[in-house]
Structures are given as structure tokens and as C-alpha cells.
Amino acid sequence: MTSKFSTLENAKWCGFLICTLxxxxxxxxxxxLGYAQNPAGAHNVHTTLEALTGSRLINLTINWTIENFxxxxxxxxxxSPSVSSGNIGLVDADGDWQLVLTPSKVxxxxxxxxxxxxxxxxxxxxxxxxxxxxVLDRKGAAVVNIYDESTNVFTIDPPQNNWGYDKFIPHTSxxxxxxxxxxxxxxxxxxxxxxxxxxxxxxxxxIINSTLLLAx
Length: 216
Hints:
Layout: E1 2-4, E2 8-9, E3 13-27, E4 31-37, E5 44-66, E6 78-79, E7 83-84, H1 85-88, E8 96-107, E9 110-120, E10 127-136, E11 142-147, E12 152-154, E13 162-170, H2 171-174, E14 194-203, E15 207-215
Antiparallel strand pairs: 1-3, 2-3, 3-5, 4-5, 5-14, 5-15, 6-8, 7-8, 8-9, 9-13, 10-11, 10-12, 10-14
């Protein structure tokens, strides 16, 4: 199922989200548990076990537009509107999910935009997921695309409730500032706005259904 929610916005940013839930199942090979004599000794009982495993892959996409980004460089951090798992029915992704952006993070003398995904207000166990971040142009095409295939465990408490990149985009790339002597490149901003897309995958609990088959 796919759910689309209305745009959330305020003076500095806006965002909307699309949430899709997939349920996949796969059958394991039938396992022969052998033969056994019944009490009367007249018949052999052939016992087999068939197991079906199912896992839920939850895909969550957050599109976030930060308006007039050039005027927010002095802000220590900017947070997107939070996405509450309870409000959208994602029980397996317990908590509120939020993008946390650092407009200017200086590392080894160079300035970067930092971007992280954070889980807050969680009440249940850890959540396992992986994610990627993109910067979009005015047509919705990705001009920056960073995706990590490895999974992260989002805990209830800091610091491991927050994962991401301190060096998401160098300022030189964001603003199109070239090395000395080279021509200037286009800025990654769209009309002064920074458009970010986060793609998140959560793996729900494993479901195992088993059936014991007796054939006489």
C-alpha cells in the first residue's frame, strides 16, 4: 500500500513523505524428519516439516525542501518535520524519524554540509535499517546520491539513534566553487533552495509459520 500525506511546512522548510509497506514470503525446502512406527506397528508414519518465512521491508521516502538555504549557514542545525511511526502505521519502525542537517561543519579546515537520520521518542526495541540521501534539481533528478548498503541499528537512546554523514556535501560542490584557475560550476541549489530526498529501508521482524504434515 502507498500512502501520501499533505505537505508540512513552516517559515524555513517544508517536506512530505511517501510510505510503502511490502510483505514478501519465501518457501524453504521441505525437510524430511524420517519415519516412525505407530503404536500398533501396522503402519509407517512419514513426517515432514514445511516452513514459510516472511519478512516485511518498509520503504520510507522523505522529500525535504530547505528554502533560502544561503541565509541559514550560521544555524547550528536544522531539523525536518518529524515523521511519527504511530501516525502512519509503521509499528515496526517505532519512534519519530527526523532529518538533521548541519549547514556548516568545518572538518580539517574545509566546510561541509552534514546530514543525519535520527530516531527519537522511541519506546520499543532497536530498529534495523539502511538509508541513502540525495540532492535533487528542479526536475527531481539526483545531482548528489549517497547510499550505504550496510545496515545500521537505531537504538532508543543516543548516540546510536543517529546515523549519517558529517561530510555529506562540501561547500565547494554545493555552491559551485571551483579550484583556483578553473571555471565556476553550477550551484546545487535550486532557486536558492536545498532539496533533499532521504530513502530509508526498515526490515521488520521475521515471521515463521510452520506446518507439520503427517502422511499415513
